[in-house]
Records
---
Amino acid sequence: MNNTKPRTTPYAIVLGIAQDGGLPHCGCHLPCCTPSWDNPSLGKMPVCLGIVDPVAQKSWMIEATFDFKTQWHMLQTTSPLGSNLPLNGIFLTHGHVGHYAGLLQLDKAILNSGHTEVFAMPKMTHLLQNNLPWKALIDQDNIHITQLQTSKIHQLSATLSIQPIVVPHRDEYTETVGFMITGLHKKILFIPDIDSWDQFPAIHSLLEQTDEIFIDGTFYDASECKHRNLKSIPHPFITDSMKRFESLSHQKKQHFHFIHLNHTNPCLNSTNLAHQQVYANHFRIATQGQIIELS
Ligand SMILES: [Zn+2]
Ligand SMILES: [Zn+2]
Ligand SMILES: [Zn+2]
């Protein structure tokens, strides 16, 4: 990442690449997490994307994770406006806790943010409006919810827009969306959580329309899920996704990034063979701090 050159055009920044629990993971003392317990600089934050429009002097975040405070700080300090960069909204994908727990940082006991815009789908809105402690954020006027509608484009600034795309995922609590972010000449597709590609045939046309792709790469393959019932946490394995999308051009694959990596995923370690296999197949693993130009 180049933090020294001031950016004058809209961009997105990857603020986290891990699954909800991050790396290291709560309670894990296996080889996947011991190096990052010993050396916190090896840690990875949960999946989160920042969007900045330096012309409009605005910014947004997709997801409010357990590391919200660090991710917002990173969004500001890497931007041309530094700590003067306002946060103009938080877009939520769904009601699994690692994707919205960070909203609690806005509470009057902490930031007392005052009227932060939160953009959420109807069931997610219902969850926040009807359950403590989220309801308290609304009652305190620390968050204000704008309801999103399926596929309806929301204009962010003169040159940026965002569109929620409903995807199949364990929808016990809320619906789940990914987002398409559109700049003047570029589109980013962000789908951090999905159950299977079979249930989402629209992915192929979405990939065609998109320049940069950030897609669920929770698990590399079945070998890392020995202790979990996969039916209760379905995700397409990276190995399966690489096979499914193998006919994409090499150039397209170089803009296809796996994100939302579980702490057990060997691709979190760039020296691991699995990580190297992804690159040998021309795909990519998202990196924290990665910047994607949107103009
Ligand atoms: Zn998740
Ligand atoms: Zn671990
Ligand atoms: Zn989820």
---
Amino acid sequence: MTYMFIGLFTLMIGYFVYFEAVLSEDVINNPYNSRQDAFAEKIVRGSILAEDGTVLAETKVAEDGTETRVYPYGEKFAHVVGYSTRGKTGIENLANFTLLTSDISTIEQIQNDIHERKDQGNNVVTTLNTELQEAAYAALGNSRGAAVVLDASTGAVLTMVSKPDFDPGTINEDWDSLTAEDDTDSALYNRAAQGLYPPGSTFKIITLLEYMRENPDYEDFSFRCSGSVTEGNYKIRCYDGTAHGQENLTTAFAKSCNSAFATIGLSLDETAFADTCKSLLFNSELPFDLTYSRSSFSLKDGATPAEQMMTAIGQGETLVSPLHMAMIAQSIANDGVLMEPYVLDHVENYSGSIVDTYSPKSYGALMTPEEAETLTEYMKAVVTDGTGRKLNDLGFSIAGKTGTAEYSSDKSKSHAWFVGFSDTGESDIVVCVLVEEKGSGSDYAVPVARQIFAAWYAQQNSLW
Ligand SMILES: [Zn+2]
């Protein structure tokens, strides 16, 4: 009998230790587990703060104990901050365990117990920059689309905007209308990380990289553009049918010449091209903690000339998210090294004592430092002499690439892209903008990016 009790007791202790160490976070975090409510009965959910301490989400407790989750910025941070009263999304989901954990002193805990008060949960301080998020939100206006801003050296997500949007504070009231649309049409869909689009000419960054890798004499490239190129019975046209004339690789890239890049596409080794795309995380998981969609690239050995040409100019079967394009640009800005994009900076208890700090993490090199440097020079020419000229008067150096992505046989409809980064050597940022169903990247995405860059450097100058 005694041995049996000792045995059972040991098993029980063992389970408790195992639960605390291994299972508890999973159990609390599982959005379908009612035990979450048990934690919420003892702890007031902590706040989500911007990097400067501005409140993005907090729980207000009324005199009668009624709790309301409040989002002071409403729609502006909706997708990245998420919501917590109708399932959990965004940072509300990612940091759920932390927000329902309370690192307060034992004395405070005892006092709270005596007065039958709940303990105050920990706050998470994010990497999000309020002013920049507001600038990007305003710049997108009423367009559908997304904007992502990363710190070029750490990968910290400074801004993540998606439109259409919703108010996380009224998610329960609005639920039926928000879910009436298909998933990808819904305002709940985070287009910045989940939206998949043909990359259009932003993909020429990758075609250029592959061409450089296969052709050590790439600087000798020369091409005469007559406005279109035909292979077999398939014809690729330059934007608006413009004949770009005599070009070298820099001008072909800066002017985003489809004829030149479709011709380059015909010369590339499909298998090597697919390997390069795989190493840039196409068809792969991304190192990112919020919900996202995987990008796809599907050029195979034996592809038809039409497929080769289309793929090289970012049409064809390729699909990519704005976040992923931003990550590729971040690696170019950072000597080839991708930093994992992250949204949580540190955790504080309610009185501001730091409980935990997250550090930037390197994912590894996506390309050599020399390749990154060369791509940067080509991307700078886009801004000084090409389709990104509207960024050239900001007073600091910017490298980028525009894209005008056709997504239906109706040629009048296209998604506008810009991806690029400031190249000043200090506080540099990566900006990716996608505007749905508008037109050319230089007309519709570049002006949005311009407002974001301008807002960032206005903010930096006011800090200096
Ligand atoms: Zn051309």
